Amino acid sequence: MKKIISAVMTVIMLAMVFAGCGKKAEEAASIRLGGLKGPTSMGMVKLLDDAENEKSKSKIEFTMSGSADELTPKLLKGDLDILAVPANLGAILYNNSDGAVQFLAVNTLGVIYMVEKGGQTVNGWQDLKGKTIYATGKGSTPEYALNYLLEQNGLDPETDVTVEWKSEPAEVVAQMAAQESAIAMLPQPFVTVAGAQIEGLNVVLDLTEEWKALDNGSQFITAGLVVRKEFAEKYPEQLKQFLEEYKASTEYVNENLEDASALVEKYDIVKAAVAQKAIPYCNIVYVDGSEMETAMKGYLQVLYDQNPASVGGELPGDDFYYEGK
Predict the structure, then answer these.
(1) What's the pTM value of the predicted model, to 2 decimals?
(2) At which of 179, 213, 247 does a domain end?
(3) 314: left (phi over 0), alpha (psi -120 to 50) or beta
């Protein structure tokens, strides 16, 4: 009998050992994370550094790109698990994948500002009437956001202002530098770059604050985190841990400008000197759950009303918004 009990106990102990090994193997699986250069990825740099130095519970394989077009196919094919992307692109991915993508959290609010060179003649939206605005982002969210805010403030985007669209922010900065007076719509960190190059450049309108002032339940959102639904369902605890560490990383970046800026440069997003000045104006946040869902639904509705294609043809269903386990 003692031999039988001993044998049974041995089997049980071996089973526990193997079960433990299996659990550790699951926890040790790397999260394949993708990010874009710019504010979209600034909030994650502390987590990336901690993971690289084995100081985080999350194990991360990070891929950086200058273009979302390089990363989104990898997410859809299963080569990436989580991706930081423009908010409307999350909706497009959801619609183009039959709901295989979910939105985890907002990680960046608006990063677009109206700036003026040559005196401050613009103190509100009505002061833009009859003016020329240099900008980038035609046919995408910057144009839709500008049109929306102009309309909400009583201006017709077609007749009350002239927008000269450029292909990239550097062109806008060069255009402003060549003129005695000019008005432009620029994203961070290019506002910071332009301020260092152009004397007398002033920020006259913060589009995020202007959107917030409308007090209609939506927010101006630049980007957020999306996840493959299959990954979220298979690794809920691992995902929960990642999100907790990601949130802590965004808080660190906002509260430790100098050290965080060095990490922003380390991960080849922008130079540390630029990052240190730009981060306070990049609206790096972490918003999840019901607050995220409310803000996103309002924002996507605005884009949909401007152009349904901007969100993938239709507004995402409720299953687009990750609720956690």
Answers:
(1) 0.85
(2) 213
(3) beta
As beta bridge partners, residue 206 has: 113
Question: What pLDDT, in 10s, does the model give residues 99-130?
Answer: 999 999 999 999 999 999 988 899 999 999 99
DSSP label at 140?
S
Q: CB of 132 within 8 A of CB of 175? A: no
Provide the 3-class DSSP secondary structure of residue 97. coil
CATH code for the domain of 154: 3.40.190.10
Q: Is residue 325 part of a domain?
A: no
165's enclosing H/E stretch is strand 162-166
Give the dihedral of Cα atoms 214, 215, 217, 222; nearest 10 deg: 50
Q: What is d(CA 194, CA 277) in angstroms, rounded to the nearest whole number?
A: 12
Cα torsion 85, 89, 91, 92: sign: negative
Q: How far is it, in rounded angstroms, from Cα 292 to Cα 219? A: 10
Q: In what order do the strands lie in the sheet with 101-109?
A: 60-65, 31-36, 82-86, 221-228, 101-109, 284-287
**Cβ density class 136-157: b for 16+ within 10 Å, e for less:** bbeeebbbbbbbbbbeeeebeb
- The answer on 117 and 91 residing in a single domain is no
**Is 154 a member of any domain?**
yes
In a domain, 39, yes or no: yes
Q: Contact at 8 Å (CB) between 93 and 72?
A: yes
**3-class DSSP assignment, residue 231:** helix
Q: For residue 128, is it within any domain?
A: yes
Give per-residue pLDDT as tens, 187-240: 999 999 899 889 889 999 999 999 999 988 789 999 999 999 999 999 999 999
φ and ψ at residue 163, rounded to 5 degrees: -110, 120
Of the three residues 183, 213, 243, the one that is the final residue of a domain is 213
